[in-house]
Amino acid sequence: MGIPAQEVEGLLCGGQRWPIYQRLQELGIPCRCEPHQALEIDVESPLAALLVWSVVTQVVAPRSEQVAWLERCWQLG
């Protein structure tokens, strides 16, 4: 389940950046979110990259896509 870079760029400048910002702060990932600016994220490790991907996916992916991904995970387990 991937997210096109243009979609992420538009998202990080839009209204959905605040929930992403708040969750990344909770996870201890350095980021900044100034009014009318793009969300800036400091990805300093592979784990941070995975967490950023996960948080962004949870916010932007359609529910049907998330359900399908979880079902595939259960089949593999």
Which descriptors would you attach to this protein?
77 residues; mainly alpha
Report on the architecture of this protein:
There is one protein chain. With 77 residues, the chain is mainly alpha-helical. It has four helices and two strands; from the N terminus they run H-H-E-E-H-H. It has helices spanning 5-13, 17-26, 46-60, 63-76; strands at residues 31-32, 40-41. A two-stranded antiparallel sheet has the order 1-2. Helix 2 runs antiparallel to helix 3 (46-60). The two termini are 18 Å apart. Residues 1-6 have low confidence and may be disordered.
Judging from the principal axes of the Cα atoms, what is the shape? flat
Overall average residue pLDDT: 83
Please give the count of helices. Answer: 4
* Unreliable parts: 1-6
Helix/strand order:
HHEEHH
Main β-sheet description: 2 strands, antiparallel
Order of adjacent strands in the largest pleated sheet:
1-2
Strand portion, in percent?
Answer: 5-15%
Helix and strand content put the structural class at: mainly alpha
How helical, in percent, are the residues? Answer: 55-70%
Terminal-residue CA separation: 18 Å
How large is the radius of gyration?
Answer: 13 Å
What's the count of strands?
A: 2
